[in-house]
Each structure stands twice: as C-alpha cells, then as structure tokens.
Amino acid sequence: MQRLTLLIALQALAFGLVACQSKEPASSPGPKEPTASAEPPATDAFRTALSRDGNYSLGWRPVGRADVPINEYFELEACLAPADDPEARITDAKLVVSAWMPGHGHGMVTKPASDPVGDCYLVKGMLFHMGGHWQLFFDVLRGGGAERVEFDLEL
Fold first, then answer.
1. How far apart are CA 26 and CA 59, in angstroms?
2. Which of 139, 144, 133 is nearest to 52 (CA)?
3. Which of 33, 43, 137, 139 has the fewest Cβ atoms nearer than 10 Å?
4. Where are the beta strands (DSSP E) in 71-112?
5. How far apart are CA 78 and CA 112, in angstroms?
6. 3-class SS string, 128-141
7. What is the pLDDT of residues 71-107, one digit of tens each?
8. At a CB cut-off of 8 Å and minimum separation 6, what does 115 contact?
9. Cβ(89)–Cβ(81) below 8 Å
C-alpha cells in the first residue's frame, strides 16, 4: 500500500512539474523571442494565392518550423512570381507584410520588414500576439502599382 501511495505521489509531482513548465509565467505577458534550437521542424509546403488583380502568385511559409506560432516572433519566406509563370521569381518588388484580426478590429503589434534573399523574400518581425482568425496581407509594390495578396489564418 505504501508503494502505491508513493507511486501516486511521484506521478502527481511529475505531472505538476510538467504542467508548471508548460505555462507562461504570469509576470511575462510579452512575446517570446526566438531561441536557437537543434534542427527545428520545417515544412516545404507553401501556402499560395493570387493577388486581387490576378497579376501575381505568392507563396509563403514559416522559416524553420511547420506552424505559425502564437505570441512568438518568427520569420516567413515569401516567393513572388508572375501569375502566368509561377516558376519564375520576382525580387524587384517591395513587399509590405501586415495582418488584421477582423473579429477584434486590430492589426499586429509589430511592423514586419521584408528583404529579397536569393529568389524569394525573408520577412522578419512577424508576431501574431493572440489566437483567433487573422487575415495576412502581402502588398506587392512594383512598377508604380500595388496589388494585395491575402490569406486567412486560424490560430
């Protein structure tokens, strides 16, 4: 009987430690900064869509991870192409990235920056500070014109 009681007590203690480790500290409401880790999960799957006017195709994915995190900084890789030739790449555009939470009437608390890297763009400073329905916008500024590519996200 004592062994069973001891076993139950150890399991409760272990569960309590695991539960405590998985929670954010109450005094730390801010977003988590990215941390280095050994080989984070990655995905090759790009989410793709056409721009509103149909001139561009844009695909994006989180860098070094398979998911879009909540309240944690992350980076995106975005590849821009002409709609009629999705294998070609465009890197001479300015790509402005933003997001909006329509159910809450607010956007992101950060202003991401994008730069061409290789044949795609690297978007730094991404942060979805809360879960829910988000609209992710990529505004393509090129040749004096602007077109938006939109994605709906459930986080």
1. 37
2. 139
3. 33
4. 74-82, 94-101, 106-107
5. 13
6. CCCCCEEEEEEEEE
7. 999 999 999 999 999 999 999 999 999 999 999 999 9
8. 121, 122, 124
9. yes
- In Å, how far from its chain's centre is CA 100? 13
Q: Encoding tokens for residue 62?
A: 């989180």
User: In sequence order, which residues have a C-beta less than 8 Å from that of residue 147 and are 6 or more positions away?
Assistant: 51, 52, 53, 55, 56, 139, 140
Residue with token string 């900064």: 33
DSSP line for 102-134? TTTTEE-SS--EEEEETTEEEEEEE---S-SEE
pTM score: 0.73
| CB 122 within 8 Å of CB 114 | yes
